[in-house]
TrEMBL record, chain A:
It comes from the Bacteria. Its cofactor is Mo-molybdopterin. The keyword Transit peptide does not apply. This is Molybdopterin containing oxidoreductase. GO terms for molecular function: heme binding; molybdenum ion binding; molybdopterin cofactor binding; sulfite oxidase activity. Residues 105-272 form the Oxidoreductase molybdopterin-binding domain. Residues 300-416 form the Moybdenum cofactor oxidoreductase dimerisation domain. Keywords: Metal-binding, Molybdenum, Oxidoreductase. The keyword Magnesium does not apply. It comes from Pararhodobacter oceanensis. InterPro entries: Ig_E-set, MoCF_OxRdtse_dimer, Mopterin_OxRdtase_euk, OxRdtase_Mopterin-bd_dom, OxRdtase_Mopterin-bd_sf, TAT_signal. GO terms for biological process: sulfur compound metabolic process.
Automatic annotation (TrEMBL), chain B:
SUPFAM superfamilies: Cytochrome c. Residues 47-67 are annotated as: Disordered. It comes from the Bacteria. This is Cytochrome C-552. Residues 1-25 form the signal peptide. Residues 47-61 have a biased composition (Low complexity). One of its GO terms (molecular function) is heme binding. Keywords: Signal. Gene3D superfamilies: Cytochrome c-like domain (1.10.760.10).
Amino acid sequence: MTNPLPPEIDAEIAEEPARRSFLKTTALGALGAYVGMNIPFAENLKAFAQGMNEEDIMAGKPGLTLLNDRPLNAETPAHLLDDDVTPYEHFFVRNNGGVPDTALNMDAEGWTLTIDGEVENPLVLTLDDLKNNFEVITRRLVIECGGNGRAFFNPGASGNQWTTGAVGCADWTGVRLSDVLNAAGIKDTAVYTAHYSNDPHLSGDPERDAISRGVPIEKAMAEGGMIAWEMNGEPIPAVHGFPLRVINPGYPGSASQKFLTRIWVRDQVHDGAKMTGYSYRMPAYPVAPGTEVPQEDMVIMTDMPVKSLITFPQSGTQTPAGAASEVRGHAWSGSGDIASVDVSIDFGATWIAAELEPAVNKFAWQRFRADITLPEAGYYEVWARATDTNGVAQPPVVPGWNPRGYGNNMQHRIALIAT
Amino acid sequence: MFATSHILRGALGVSLACFVTAASAQMAYDPMRPTPNPLMPVNPLMPATSEESTTESASAEVLPNPEFGNLPDAEGVEETFYQCVACHSTAIILQQSLTDARWDYLWTWMIEEQGMFEPEDEIRDEILTYLKTHFSSER
């Protein structure tokens, strides 16, 4: 079978010059025009309120797709996520508020982390305390936005319309979250953590938190949880949470609070900003698309679903017909390890087992590779399907619709043109 | 019939050749492109959908207004712009296609949880009508 090239290819080519001239002729002040483009024009972006400088930040992340400039949100095209360790320039950005001046200035002078609430010994720790009093570890951990894949839900779900690129896997250096919580002495009454930071709320109201989420105490004490100050061997960059970030891998990225100032151990489920209502919550039961689910029936998201991404080749690449060529990418799961990855070149009719590398540590993504041979010239799609150690695999279509569009782990597909 | 399909195949061959020589892989058909809402105005956030959107918006004659963050230039655009950009850019609005019920919920959420200024009822109705008209999954 030879699938004809869809007309969109012609359309996209024809459209390109028009888009360029549109960009050139649009006033600089109309920033919306730049949003959604790749960022070759990043140098033209203007700075915003509260000292936030998107120009500097986005200029350091060429190739990312800007979804929102205030607050700053940008995702990574799949082919720029091919590295085993996602470099800074390719790491997606999801901010709920502004980037604090302390981060923009990389100024950690006097920074402290408070651990209080349901603990025997409340702690106020400096960065030096953290570095000197606990075992320092480096772990490769995936961070993925809970709303990654939201763009594919219909009816639409509110929020940034992430496609596939709100995910990255970096090397994080810091201390175990459990070591710090144990030093404070967790009481039997502890139920949940509550994370706080100094990023300003969008309204400018100093009494409001841009975001304050947390995790069940069992998750905070489990393997993987960290308080980190380095990303890929450097101080955590401003937009990723300088100088401190808690990381709870496997959970939605919002459970990994940036600019961390305090972990309040609570005797109840945390009810901070974006813990309640529909934020990072899924219906307690399956609903038809577009259903208005009562708030009391929404439950907090925990583990992210099993997922994979084809990072090489780039979608639309040509490859010789009849010759083997490599397809590769990463697979990960919120619950831990991946058991297998399969790829298909015939729209899921048949599957080929990919070679799968073990994770360097729990919650790191795992490299998969497969050699595929496209039999004749024409249009093909390569699909990837990861299966976790519980036998749960990615669905071929968008999974259960939910009001805020979370947890879409549909199989990733790229186009390959055999010539 | 044979001739037609032959011509079609020829045309596809040309378009493939054109694609191969004149365009980078980045411009290829993307199997993961989000399904566009055919009634959406030009959405600079979704370049992959703008071809279809342009066609639709041309027939609907609703064009983006650069003075108001590229929101569709229609009744209510000015009120919507000034109400919303107090906290966030129009970029997030341009990405939405929601049910009416979700817009009503978001409005209350922004006032109660996010500290949005609550305008007079008349302005509220105008803004919500604007949002439900231009950023809807229902129409």
